[in-house]
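Summary of Year 1 activities. Much of the first year was spent building the evaluation harness for sequence design. The harness presents a backbone, in tokenized form, and records the residue chosen at every position. We chose the following record to illustrate the format because it has been used consistently in internal testing since the harness was completed.
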């Protein structure tokens, strides 16, 4: 609604009254006729440039009726100030009030109702609150008020303003610095909407017909003498929850309450594009709104993007570490609620990330998010208020989606910017905003050279050039306050000691290599001047070398050589020795001090500027900066940060650092301290559990208890996703909602200090249960010379597929040549990545099977990429540094190396060629989809998306072959190889797939017959185009349909068949009492009781459960260290935890770590219901998968084994002499980064737990009892997780786990 239409509707039914005159007499009638609920507004100039406003600057803003022309008061009939002065106008600038407080200048939290001038003294009310519209004080009319910007904004009545001028304290202009006459404080204007005319009128002049009067206050007034600084708000931290609110939380009330909570946000939920939505943040625990707000540090709680994935589910795209906590499943309810999403009609199809677009979602909406004084974000404005704010600073939200990247949210508020991409840190570095705002100019806070009369405007390119020049300058000057009050670490007040400021310089490397790169650092020293900011890039090896040689401080240091008291600064160096638990380490500490005499520090500079005070860790070479930096943390970790005993870590640290007369802290004192801690702080069990809903169903005993309670109450829980129908792909899909990480760790524990009597009686959990059955066979042989099942001979197989590795019979020379052609991974030591010579290529081509050679022929015949520099497929291939030396002689042809454009083919062939590994390219979902592609036809986008999450390498090949209608199919040349992959993959899980029945052929033989017949029909149909052979073709097609129907029936049953080891007749049975006692002595799995006894697999293990010599399970033949470390003198534990480092349990390792520990825990403690759809993260997951394929292959079909990011490393950039687990030699299908659904899955949870244990190694290595060792580990694990934001206390009386399970499956 424009100003013209607003004025035309002032007497209509819109409920809006526009003030026509500023005289109380003319508006007296409104006091009688004003009805409740009507909004009173006034014409005003909110934002304008130049000396006077023009018509386009005039807006309609909230106002109040001028007070009545009161001639007397309540005390003896005394005249009011306005009556005494004979004032005919009530002067107030509603436009300035609206610009400073757009959400309610005269409401609670606005300017305040009292005048703080000299006469009123904060006791006289200017207006009355609590009514709408607000009412000016009627009995003490002051004739108006001046709005002062100082102190956060307040009012001065005209009576106090006059008194201020009489005493000689006029208002001062901030532009010129001169006094402002009292009569120039206000200027009265009259606007005529019908003729779009604005003219200046005299004070007291009556309004003309069709005109509207208003006042404009001078906008350059400096703060008055009565201004008070606003109370400093408590520092806001990102992600801090709102204050406790009464009543149940929205998450407890249900979906409707959550949607209602989202609708209250300043940036409401917006439909950005088809399948893409902008959603405000909610508190993870209670579901309360975390609304967006701005501080001097930046924006917090910025709304995140949510997309609809290929399965139709809502998925968060914020990219934060806590992204998995953002439960967005409740948005499903918005599908049936029309008009809930803003920004247009919501389309709930899958989001297409390949379509680039840029959309400013705050443009064209009926609301505005204004920026108030100080740059803080105000409440959203609607209707006439939003129209009035046009032209003022406001929040702009832009969503950018580039092809091949995730969509991002860019937010502009004033000059500052926020981008959800971690690579972007402001409008100057955000490449998304550079593309959107490249032709725009941004207002700057620096004044121009004309004395501040005009705002300087520079383009974004100029501002960026200035930053580059500043970065190249190398140093940055700042002022440091040396007053003791400002140097206190807890000082929060702004520095006012201008006379004590001292010039310091911030070296370019001030914040580098210390964990502070490219981050703003608010230090104690910088509070008197500018904040320390790093303007440099990372050092690199050369920079580190030069820094060590210079031996300078990395922290800011004074420019002058003299301290404030006139004495020179000195760098104090102190050498000492750190002695703990029998070990002695030489250390050196440095600090900058001011000395009066040797041994005496000057009192004026008693607080030395060392690295610990200002928060930047100073290193010089490998020497430590401060003993407190290391030793206090060391002892705090050893003693337990959550406990306070009779000795402190600081005192122990001081005594540890030896000097001339400092006694050493010997082993006896340290050992007694550790012994006291073990006795006082030991915890009998893990007491803290993870509060995230995704982790609740990992606590198996609690899940079972909740299900029993719900069944007894007659309200059973709904089934889990993995318990859906067998025909649904989602039932067998793997997601990030079900992940467990495993890892083992060892720490020093001398064998002389162990409890020999107890240890000799302990058994490993990998030893079989004496009462469990012995299991023979039940697996498919890996290769020709591998271990064969003892229960079934290889004779009787009626199809070409016999082994889990389809190329096990390939000659080694041909295998090496083929791997060189793939050019996928750096060759191992003594290998070569040189391109193939023509004769080598021919030898390789002739030595490969026909189906594999067809893949190479397809690549050779396809030709090279036309433009590799712009091709998205070529640019996505990782850098391969070994190619540079060979490319110096010119480009390499397709017969030498696999072309970069077809690297997906090279990766697949490389995975097929890896020896001693099974062809597991996917699980149930992949088997279903490959069978469909072989027998039924092409896959659609949904099927390809499922295939990408389950079989990424095969999906990468299929994505390169689209056909009409958005479908994908394999070319005819690749179908035989795809069939080999499917058949071998199925044999890995179902050894009976190639065994014929009593009266029928095997399922794989049925697949062979059906595909051969279908492919023959297809070839014959192409040959007989245009000929009349309808009868013969009809019979052949009927025969093909029958064969296809038989193959589908047999193969579907095998694909979804559950393992036979559970239930009646299975080899997993109730454990014996001896096994329960044996395992209980060395393990702690509080939430996973022992369900089954461990059987002995006779083909692979001896009587003690150890692997037989000569078998293929030796770790040295797989991805492992060639020479594993000896376990002598060390103790180890094997830990299971969720993504958030919540320990699920652990057990003691007797001997070295083995994948048998992982397999035994999963088999004996986890029911099949928990294992379905479970992703297992472990640094040797490739060996764990082979362990299951050799023993329980049907169970491995329902689990996803992946290697964590740290140990898998870059796929194609492995160094030649890679150390332990630096880069695995197995296929990338075992690397977690190959699976897109695990892009935000945390894989280093166990590594973080191990790191915490290693920090406590000083206390662990002193323990002489196995019982105390297990108790101590339990205490450490529970203490480490206790500090996490996801940790909640668990007990029988307070059980948050069961509440989470009910909430997730209610």
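For this record, the design step produced the sequence shown next.
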């Amino acid at each position: 609604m424009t100003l013209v239409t607003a004025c035309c509707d002032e007497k209509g039914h819109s409920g809006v009254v526009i003030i026509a005159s500023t005289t109380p007499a003319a508006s007296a009638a409104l006091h009688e006729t004003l009805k409740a609920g009507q909004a009173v507004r006034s014409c005003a100039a909110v934002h304008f440039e130049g000396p006077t406003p023009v018509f386009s600057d005039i807006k309609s803003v909230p106002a109040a009726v001028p007070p009545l022309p009161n001639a007397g008061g309540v005390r003896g009939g005394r005249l009011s100030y306005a009556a005494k002065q004979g004032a005919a106008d009530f002067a107030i600038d509603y436009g300035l009030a609206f610009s400073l407080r757009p959400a309610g200048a005269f409401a609670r939290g606005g300017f305040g109702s009292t005048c703080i001038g000299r006469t009123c003294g904060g006791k006289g009310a200017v207006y009355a609150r609590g009514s709408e519209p607000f009412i000016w004080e009627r009995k003490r009319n002051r004739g108006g008020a001046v709005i002062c910007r100082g102190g956060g904004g307040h009012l001065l009545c005209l009576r106090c303003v006059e008194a201020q001028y009489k005493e000689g304290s006029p208002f001062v202009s901030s532009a010129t610095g001169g006094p402002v006459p009292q009569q120039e404080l206000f200027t009265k204007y009259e606007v005529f909407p019908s003729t779009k005319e604005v003219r200046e009128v005299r004070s007291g002049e009556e309004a003309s017909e069709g005109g509207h009067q208003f006042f404009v206050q001078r906008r350059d007034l400096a703060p008055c003498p009565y201004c008070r600084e606003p109370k400093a708000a408590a520092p806001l931290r990102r992600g801090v929850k709102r204050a406790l609110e009464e009543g149940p939380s929205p998450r407890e009330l249900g979906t409707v309450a959550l949607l209602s909570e989202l609708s209250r946000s300043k940036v409401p939920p917006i439909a950005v594009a088809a399948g893409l939505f902008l959603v405000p943040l909610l508190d993870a625990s209670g579901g309360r709104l975390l609304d967006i707000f701005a501080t001097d540090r930046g924006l917090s709680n910025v709304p995140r993007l949510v997309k609809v994935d290929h399965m139709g589910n809502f998925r968060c795209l914020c990219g934060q570490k806590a992204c998995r906590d953002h439960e967005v499943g409740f948005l499903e309810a918005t599908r049936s609620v029309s008009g809930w999403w803003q920004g247009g009609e919501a389309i709930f199809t899958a989001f297409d990330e390949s379509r680039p677009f840029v959309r400013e979602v705050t443009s064209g909406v009926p609301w505005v998010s204004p920026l108030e004084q100080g740059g803080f974000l105000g409440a959203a404005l609607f209707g006439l208020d939003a129209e009035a704010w046009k032209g003022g600073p406001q929040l702009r939200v832009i969503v950018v989606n580039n092809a091949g990247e995730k969509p991002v949210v860019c937010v502009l508020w004033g000059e500052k910017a926020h981008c959800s991409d971690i690579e972007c840190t402001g409008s100057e570095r955000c490449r998304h905003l550079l593309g959107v705002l490249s032709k725009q100019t941004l207002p700057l806070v620096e004044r121009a050279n004309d004395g501040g009369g005009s705002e300087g405007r520079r383009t974004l390119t100029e501002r960026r050039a200035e930053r580059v020049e500043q970065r190249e300058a190398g140093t940055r000057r700042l002022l440091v306050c040396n007053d003791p009050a400002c140097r206190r670490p807890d000082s929060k007040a702004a520095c006012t000691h201008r006379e004590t400021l001292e010039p310091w310089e911030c070296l370019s490397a001030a914040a580098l290599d210390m964990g502070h790169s490219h981050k703003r650092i608010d230090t104690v020293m910088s509070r008197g001047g500018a904040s320390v900011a790093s303007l440099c890039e990372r050092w690199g090896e050369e920079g580190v070398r030069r820094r060590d040689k210079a031996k300078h401080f990395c922290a800011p240091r004074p420019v002058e050589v003299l301290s404030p008291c006139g004495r020179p600064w000195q760098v104090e160096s102190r050498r000492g020795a750190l002695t703990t638990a029998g070990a002695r380490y030489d250390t050196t500490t440095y600090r900058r001090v001011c000395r009066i005499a040797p041994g005496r520090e000057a009192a004026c500079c008693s607080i030395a500027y060392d690295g610990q005070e200002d928060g930047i860790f100073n290193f010089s070479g490998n020497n430590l900066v401060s003993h407190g930096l290391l030793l206090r943390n060391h002892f705090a970790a050893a003693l337990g940060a959550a406990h306070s005993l009779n000795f402190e870590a600081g005192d122990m640290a001081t005594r540890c650092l030896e000097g001339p007369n400092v006694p050493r802290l010997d082993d006896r004192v340290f050992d007694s301290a550790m012994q006291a801690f073990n006795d006082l702080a030991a915890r009998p069990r893990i007491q803290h559990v993870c509060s995230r809903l995704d982790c609740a169903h990992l606590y198996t005993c609690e899940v079972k208890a909740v299900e029993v309670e719900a069944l007894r109450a007659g309200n059973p829980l709904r089934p889990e996703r993995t318990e859906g129908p067998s025909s649904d792909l989602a039932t067998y899909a793997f997601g990030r909602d079900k992940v467990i990480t495993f890892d083992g760790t060892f720490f020093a524990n001398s064998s002389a200090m162990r409890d020999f009597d107890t240890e000799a009686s302990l058994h490993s959990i990998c030893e079989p249960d004496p009462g469990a059955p012995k299991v023979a066979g039940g697996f498919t042989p890996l290769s020709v010379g591998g271990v064969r099942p003892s229960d079934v001979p290889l004779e009787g197989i009626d199809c070409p597929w016999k082994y889990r590795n389809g190329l096990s019979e390939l000659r080694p020379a041909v295998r090496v040549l083929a791997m060189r052609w793939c050019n996928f991974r750096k060759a191992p030591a003594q290998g070569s990545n040189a391109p193939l010579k023509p004769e080598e290529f021919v030898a390789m081509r002739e030595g490969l099977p026909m189906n594999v050679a067809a893949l190479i022929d397809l690549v050779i015949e396809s030709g090279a990429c036309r433009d590799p520099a712009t091709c998205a497929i070529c640019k996505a291939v990782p850098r391969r540094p070994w190619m540079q030396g060979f490319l110096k002689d010119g480009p390499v042809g397709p017969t030498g190396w696999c072309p970069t454009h077809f690297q997906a083919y090279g990766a697949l062939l490389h995975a097929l060629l890896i020896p001693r590994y099974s062809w597991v390219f996917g699980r149930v979902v992949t088997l279903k989809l490959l069978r469909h592609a072989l027998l039924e036809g092409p896959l659609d986008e949904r099927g390809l998306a499922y295939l990408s999450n389950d079989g990424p390498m095969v999906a990468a090949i299929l994505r390169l072959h689209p056909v009409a209608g958005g479908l994908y199919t394999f070319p005819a040349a690749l179908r035989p190889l795809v069939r080999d992959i499917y058949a071998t993959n199925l044999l890995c899980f179902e050894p009976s797939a190639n065994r014929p029945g009593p009266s029928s052929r095997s399922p794989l033989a049925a697949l062979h017959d059906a595909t051969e017949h279908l492919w023959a029909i297809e070839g014959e149909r192409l040959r007989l185009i245009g000929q009349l052979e309808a009868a013969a073709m009809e019979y052949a097609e009927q025969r093909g349909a029958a064969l296809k129907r038989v193959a589908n029936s047999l193969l579907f049953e095998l694909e979804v068949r559950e393992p036979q080891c559970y239930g009646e007749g299975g080899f997993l049975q109730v454990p014996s009492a001896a096994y329960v006692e044996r395992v209980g002595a060395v393990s702690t799995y509080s939430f996973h009781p022992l369900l089954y006894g461990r059987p002995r697999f006779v083909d692979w293990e001896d009587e003690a459960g150890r692997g037989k010599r000569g078998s293929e399970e030796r770790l040295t033949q797989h991805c492992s260290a060639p020479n594993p470390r000896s376990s002598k003198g060390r103790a180890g534990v094997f830990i299971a935890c969720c993504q958030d480092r919540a320990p699920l349990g652990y057990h003691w390792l007797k001997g070295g770590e083995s994948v048998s520990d992982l397999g035994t825990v999963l088999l004996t403690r986890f029911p099949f219901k928990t294992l379905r759809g479970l992703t297992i993260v472990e640094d040797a997951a490739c060996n764990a998968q082979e362990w299951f394929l050799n023993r329980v292959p049907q169970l491995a079909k329902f689990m996803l084994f992946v290697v964590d990011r740290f140990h898998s490393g870059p796929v194609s950039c492995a160094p030649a002499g890679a150390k332990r687990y630096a880069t695995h030699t197995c296929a990338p299908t075992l690397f977690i980064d190959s699976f897109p659904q695990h892009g935000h899955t945390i894989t280093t949870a166990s590594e973080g737990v191990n790191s915490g244990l290693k920090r406590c190694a000083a206390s662990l290595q002193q323990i002489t009892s196995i019982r105390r060792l297990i108790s101590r580990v339990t205490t450490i694990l529970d203490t480490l997780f206790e500090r996490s934001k996801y940790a909640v206390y668990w007990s029988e009386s307070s059980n948050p786990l069961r509440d989470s399970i009910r909430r997730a499956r209610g």
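The chain is about 30% helix and 15% strand. Quantitative recovery figures across the full test set are reported in Table 2.
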